[in-house]
Amino acid sequence: MLLAFAITAGMMFACGVYLMLRRSMVRLIIGLLLISYSVNLIIFSMDDPNTRGAPIIDSVEESAMSDPLPQALILTAIVISFGVLAFTLALGYRATQVAGTDNIDTLQSTDRGT
Amino acid sequence: MQILLVLPLILPLLIGCSALIRFRNIRQTVALICLFLNMLVCLLLLVETHLYGVQVVQSGGVIAPYGISLVVDSLTGVMLAISGIIGFAVGIFSAATIAANHQRFAYYPLFGFLMMGINFAFITGDLFTLYVAFEVMLMASFVLLTVGGERSQIEGGLKYVTLNLISSTIFLIAAGLTYAVAGTLNMAHLAAIMAEQPSPGIGTVLAALFLIAFGIKAAMFPLFFWLPASYHTPPIAVTALFGGLLTKVGIYSMWRVLVMIFPQELAYLQPLILVLAALTMIIGVLGAVAQTEFRRLLSFHIISQIGYLLMAIGLLTVDSMTGAVFFMVHVILAKTALFFVSGLAYELEGTYKLKKLGGLSKRAPGLALLFLFAAFSLAGFPPFSGFWGKLLLIRSGLEIGQYVIVAIALAVSLLTTYSMLKIWTEVFWKPLPKQDTELASPHKRLSPLMLAPVGVLVGLIIAIGVFAEPMYQLSEAAAVGVISPVSYIEAVLLPGTGE
Fold it and tell me: Closest Cα to residue B113, out of B4, B15, B24?
């Protein structure tokens, strides 16, 4: 189970990095998104995925309880990444409008010190 | 006085909430009042921690390590106080320089959220909450950077956003793995656990992950490229605030997390950090020397100064950390003051290009003097604040025999002087180039509101330089508190002893 989590998270991260290295703005944003999802998976697997009892006292044995904290962390991270994604999409849209292209390689004027 | 610890979060949040008010003037008044109160509270907190030790609030009354602790120790006190001062100074400066069309887009509320994120990052005693604080800070800074929507802003913003999001992602992974290893996210608890049962293998990996995550935020070599690409694009008051505080939050987090929680694992990374510190200094200052635009030149200097702050982590003695805290306070003041000066030069002559600027020593001798003091301080001349910070850092380097980094630090100081001299001769000394006189507004004068923040910051630089002893004691207390965090751990985990 843990191995499956690890492989999936790794694959998603790799895909995210690959997409981010492309030239298109949309791919960049999707890449960022995939990476943030894969991190959620990594945090999810912090708890032993075999113990899936609800963490309520007296309803399950203590050894079978899952740790609620990683899930709380993921929830926060999901909300944050949702907000960030909304902003990034707006920024990407604005960038394609201002620059007239979604090719990131053409956005270089601030690097060169015009 | 537990309410005091929460006020640095609530007051900036109030500024943020003032976005609901329709009238710009009222928003501005609310913001300035709150920023002023925030500065007072932060200074009060510094005094209180210095007199009575570490102050703790367990939010919601949940006992540590289960809840989220808000902790103010000496280091946090110093950082809060300096950020409060800078916040108020930038607030006043914004009132004088930010154009009305920028203010229309809720400039001050965003400013408030940014200050809240910064204060939150300083004050939190919980690793995951530090991540949340970073996100609050980042979101506000994303918007402040890109509001206005000029092409250069969008381009710079895109790089800034992407790299900072990657940094947050790495931070999140590291925080998650830390929880898996130690079973807690409370910093005091973590520090206690890692000290008792060091885990050299995974601990070093975690320390490296944190180093990369905070290194991107702090603009460490080779992760700094977002900074010179974006910092010169927004209005100058925003640049001054970013340049003064944001990268320093990254360095603060390194001190708090790497030095306090992972000191034993850090030992393995120290040679690497020293090399990175040296490269950060050199590349930063060489980049600055090559620039011909006022703001870009200063942006590269931010990177070069970050090298000095990293050097302290590489040396990791009480002396070096004392020097670094001192240097941190100095560099925040000097950097913000220099960005202010560049903004005022723009107000007078309508350009940031060094070639087209000129003649300001005659036209605005007061401004020239302020620049000279700030620049001398940045270069490390006595009796300004920069001298003491560098002296302490270099002395601690000599004491433990790291001669190479000391030599590099001194050489970089010389180059810093050179690039400051370049600004001096181009902007202040040489006459205004003839062909560009139509750009300049010859009758424009600087209002007292514009000069006052610069004057106060430069006054502080001189005051810290001349009366270095109190500042030294504060820095030493902060350094000791981070390197051997016994009082921090006791105050958080054993309630009653720390009050």
Answer: B15
